Records
---
Amino acid sequence: MGQTQQTENSEEIDVKALQDMYKKFVMECPSGQLFLHEFKRFFNVDPTGEAADYAECMFRAFDTNGDNTIDFLEFVAALNLVFRGDLEHKLRWSFKVYDKDCNGYVDRNELLSIIHSIYRIKKGTKTDMSDAELTVDDVVERIFQAVDSDGDGHINMEEFIKGAQKDPWVLNMLKLDMNPSRWVLEQRRRSAFF
């Protein structure tokens, strides 16, 4: 239990990038509060594009105090986790992305919604779709079979973490959320503000 696994992500956010983000954050949000529509604009996400649902889920996970805004400290804390966190911390964060209603469980509809968004983003960015022969419903069913250890139709955080850690396929299916830094960097590169 004392050991932590590092994810394969070796990219880190540097001080200059953080300073640039702070400048952009203050410029975009002089109030110090970032709302969802500003978050999407901040990362140059088309409100109706394939990344919109994913951006909304990330926004909710970044908003740690649940006030429907992200202040700069929440923003920096989230980016630190995204770029430097260990596997278990990233899984805990991912769970928050999947748990849309924040009730402590991921149900089939929540999982279906996120997996559908991931498929749309992967298809839109031509990312590896080696599991493309599986439908979204097939993926959700397979994840539930592998992760829902008590069979109650809900996945709690402990089941989510243990299931992802012990099943490489499940972890791979969560990879877009497990490697949100790739998404953040991609959106950052596309943004004219960075």
---
Amino acid sequence: MSDSPASPARFPLIEISTVKLDFQDHVTTFSTEMALIHNVFIRGLNCIWEYAPVVKKGDECAFAGYSLTWAGLVHDHHHGEEDIIFPFLQEKFDMGHNVEQHKEFLQDLATFEEYMTGVFQKKLTYDGEKARQLVEAFGDSMVSHLHEEIPTISPERLGEYDKVALDKMIKIHDDHIKSQSMFTAFSLVATHHDFQGVPSWPPMPAPVIWIIRNVGYWRYRSYWKFAPYTRYGKAQKYV
């Protein structure tokens, strides 16, 4: 899947087939869904890296808020994996390597968050080059992990599990996802997913997507100027 030129490319996206996807068939599509959300994270990281040195005066707090929202979604995602997905998969395959990879970049990510929190609270003066250097400290390790995790949840592996048990685990994970805020998490996903390439994801009812785009988006609208897409999926650049 080729991505929009609106999304800067310091870190490589995961290649995804654009064949028709049946998101009710978890064995065959769960790894694709994981790759899609991982690409959301990578697009956000690319935008943070790309725009960090060119943030305009007056946009510093919004950029810090955008960066912290992105980091918060990464943490929520990892909690869902470590608390729900990996324990279930551990019954047949060792998922410990994935957890260890999370730990490899968490400290440097925390340093980045600490700095951005200081900027957001106006306790620190924003320095774009420093922000980019902080991203460089964890970016490659994080993105390598996001790529390497996909084969560990392949259809071949998921096919080893009882379908009823697998569907139950994924339902619990879906409930975890649904508990997140439409103002932050879902608005970030809506502005970082390539709807032209994969229009059927996220698999949500149309009214829910409408609410995210037309209600949820607006609370933190100043953040989404840094996103690669508008709320309707049109490519954009921060200028």
---
Amino acid sequence: MKFSHALGGLLSATVVLAAPAPVPVAEPMPMPTPPGIPSASSAKSQLAALTVAASSDTGTYDRDLFPTWDTISGTCNTREYVLKRDGTSVTVDSACYPTGGSWTSPYDGAKWTSPSDVDIDHMVPLKNAWISGASKWTTAKREQFANDVTRPQLWAVTDNVNSSKGDKSPDAWKPPLTSFYCTYARAYVGVKSYWALSITSAEKSALSDMLATC
């Protein structure tokens, strides 16, 4: 009996000692996003303060009036800089061309491992900027706008989705993922506000609806 009790105690101790310690589980990393996205409440205030006016499309827009891509850091131009910033585990060669990594497009949720499948989208399209105030800017200022990595103007997204957007404003085009409406509208308004660009009434209505999803 004593032997049985002793053996039972030994087995219990063995079980206790053999129990594995809990392994910490890392929480999923948030999807990389450009800096400077205003909060929903700030975006709503900024939207209310934007000038509402009809767009002035005189047919004089030219993509070359917005020079891209500038050298941003080292050998990295604007496109390469954004690919590094918004990608996961991105490696580059001496010329800053991506040699590895992956990108998740926030517009549609698609994941890519080849940089050729990823476009850098201007949140506020260059033509939209032109017809809402940028036509009055100097070329130097338009260049700053087209290469703005300080605000949420540049996004790494699926190339086909970027093509479908083209130069459309939110009243004519919205990202496929409705769950991204809030962030999209906040970023769009933040860029328009900083660069003091006007919006049309249709644009404002669409942005208001999108901000209502926040």
---
Amino acid sequence: MEPNNKSHPEEFILLGFADRPWLELPLFIILLITYPMAMMGNIAIILVSKVDPCLHSPMYFFLTNLSFLDMCYTTSIVPQLLCNLGTSKKTISYIGCAVQLYFFHIMGGTECLLLALMSFDRYVAICKPLHYTLIMNQRICILLVATVWMSGMTYAVSEATVTLQLPLCGRNTLDHLLCEIPVLIKTACGEKGANELTLSVVCIFFLAVPLCLILISYACIGHAVFKIKSLEGRKKAFGTCSSHLIVVFLFYGPAISMYLQPPSSISRDQPKFMALFYGVVTPTLNPFIYTLRNKDVKGALGNLMGSVFTCK
């Protein structure tokens, strides 16, 4: 019996927006602008969280992880997208596709769980303030973040490896901008019902369950916030929580519409726009959402910029 990998092509042709060539130049320019913005914004969040002593708390430790994750997330797809959009060659090697598949889904799976962890942190801070430092101590925070990263890696490695074993019967054309699990399953030949079912079950755990936990956390937070008598206290609680909620809905909305349905039922253009949204738009917007809606981050960023210009 011949191994499946003989049916794998040396490279894939990524069709992208081949049927809409007029979109390629505007998209290339947008990515050329937003990618450096995403990198600089997330690096700024990491720097101020490390440099400013006021931000040495679990909330900003998790935010630093989110910023690092977003940098890796967008880097896993944007450079390759820019190469394909800027040249007539719309291909990616099989090895390049496999690497992108692993990294893209490691970051995606980890972000799902990290956002749930950040909501749990806000729940403890607002609903259990007297026990916050005891529950969210440094050792627990590091352990929780390590668990989140390991879970994301386990999901990506197992799911991507199984997907790469599917026979492609000589097919090397992907109607997408990048290598993504649902699109590869859809392209594969033969029986793939088990793969679709496995992906749906895993995505329920990584998307639906964390989202439910987030919503439950914020229901409890909302109940606790309305009990706060101080108007300033309410504003501060809503300020930190609203930033996180906006990020949650920006990420989970497109991801759920993409992954919680069978790959065979996905429309032609849906994966392309969804991947651009949660792989490019969300990582670019996250630093601005957290900066504009958080006085502590704005203050720390102002102090950092001031010290840089003073040194000069």
